[in-house]
Amino acid sequence: MNVFALTLIFSFILWLQNKLTKTPLRKTAQTYHKKPTSRLGGVAIAAALFIDAFFLTENSAETELYRLIIICVLPTFVAGLLDDLFFDVKPWQRILLMLPTPILLFYFAGLKVTNLSLGFLDDFLDYDIFALIFIVIALVGMSNAFNIIDGFNGLLLGYVITLALSIFFYGSFNNQFFISNIIYALFYSCLAVLIINSPWGKIFLGDAGAYMLGILVPTVLIFYYKVNALSPWFVMAMLIYPTVEVLVSVIRKIIYRNMSAMEPDGLHLHMLIYKRVSKKFGFRKIRLRHFVVAMFIFTLNFPFMFFANVFSTNTKILFSICIWYVLVYLLIYFILLPRYIFKRK
Fold first, then answer.
1. Are 285 and 293 in contact (CB under 8 A)?
2. 20 to 30 A Cα–Cα from 285, which one of 64, 133, 179, 300?
3. Residue 298: its pLDDT value, please?
4. pTM of this structure
């Protein structure tokens, strides 16, 4: 609860600072709000987590790991923060700035995946170079995927909260202080920002917050599955939403729209839902449309996350959960997708 209070206080201060200084409105394909809004919600979360890790928890080996992870995430956090502060940072430059984070986590925090339940392909992960490449691609990719789904009030925050709740309902910490502490910290910090973010939209996570959560969430899931001897497909099942979102985005942009995979196009699932909700129901208030989209995504994701926890040791069922999610996602996506995207430029 200390993290909740700290994040709430920092969020309020940053909202007040934005109100007084009037941050300019950023116009992009992903901008659906009309008023200048602080993009420093991630700063509030980062500050609260830092204070929690270094000042509010008792010293122990697990606390040292918690602190180390917070430090390792800093390069990725800074990569997003520069953009939030209106520095012109190109997408490839942000990726370069992110690279130290997975490398540091691999060598200093021991974040390593050596088994994917993929037969002979797992043999490659016995070699550090391949294990490192996998972690770098996985974490940088997931960090960008989290940024993609951070499109509307409460969407990414709600996703992280949903993930944490599914673990609380059926997961097991087995006195794992580090894992339980950081999951609770992520839950309460995201909840605090959500209170100010949704439905009023007074503060956004920003790229710093999205990138940071995109590293912290998969990192803690990897430690969680390894300590509890779960199937590695548990991690994939828990992260299937952002994974599918980023893969569909890349395929859509490169193959069908003949554009850069890093260029925004406003055709992500949550944006299509928003457009359909706006057209069919005509909600006048934008924040109400955001709320409906966030609740739709929650309704889509929570059952899959819950059953991933129920069958967390069964690779075959977890694989089936991932396949079913992809099919459901694509069915909804193609129902909502405008036909014009199939006309190549």
1. no
2. 300
3. 92
4. 0.91
